[in-house]
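>> Question from a student workshop board

For tomorrow's exercise we were told to take the sequence and the ligand below, predict the bound structure, and bring the output to class. My setup keeps failing. Could a helper post the expected result so I can at least see what it should look like? The ligand is guanosine-5'-diphosphate.
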Amino acid sequence: SLPVVAIVGRPNVGKSTLFNRLAGERISIVEDKPGITRDRIYSKSEWNGQPFHLIDTGGLEFGKQDEVVEHIRHQAELAIEEADVILFVVDGREGVTATDEEVARMLHRSNKPVVLVVNKMDHIKHHEDLYEFYRLGFDEPIGVSSLHGTGTGDMLDAVVRHF
Ligand code: GDP
Ligand code: MG
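>> Workshop helper replied:
Here is what the output should look like for this input. Compare the format with yours to find the bug.
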C-alpha cells in the first residue's frame, strides 16, 4: 500500500490550503460521527513519480474540553497513527505558540518522522523568521507559502526521503 502523509497542526495555520495545493484526486471524507464536518480528508498525490496518500485533519486545540475539540484531536491522533510521515504545519507570521508546543510534544511521543513546515512565508525577506522554530525540536524547518506554492518542492523532497 502507498505511504501515508498526514498534515497536522493547530487551527488556521494553513493545513487545508496546503492540502488543496498538494491534492490530486480526492478519494474520501471520513466521518466517524454524523454532523461533524472537520474530519480526516484523504487524497492521492505524487512527487517525482512517487505516489502517496495525503490526509488533512482539523486543527488541534489543547486546553479546551468541549466535544468538538476532543473529536478533532481524536481525528488527528488517528491520522498520526496511520501516517508514515507527518507534515507539522506552523504559522511563520505568528511564531511559535503554546499550542504549537503541545502539538510538538504529541508528535515527539508518536516517534514518527516529522517534517516541520513553516507556512505563510510569502516573502523571501521573512526567512530569518525560521530560526525560532528550531526550538520545537525537529529537523530543519522548511519555509513555504501554501498560498503561492513556493517552498513545497523542498518540503516534498524532505517527505519522500522518509518513505
Ligand atoms: P487550517 O485551519 O490550518 O486548515 O488553515 P486554512 O488552510 O483554512 O487557512 C487559514 C487561513 O490562512 C486562510 O485564510 C488561508 O487563506 C490563509 N493561508 C493559508 N496559507 C497561507 C499562506 O501561505 N500565506 C498566507 N498569507 N495566508 C495563508
Ligand atoms: Mg483546515
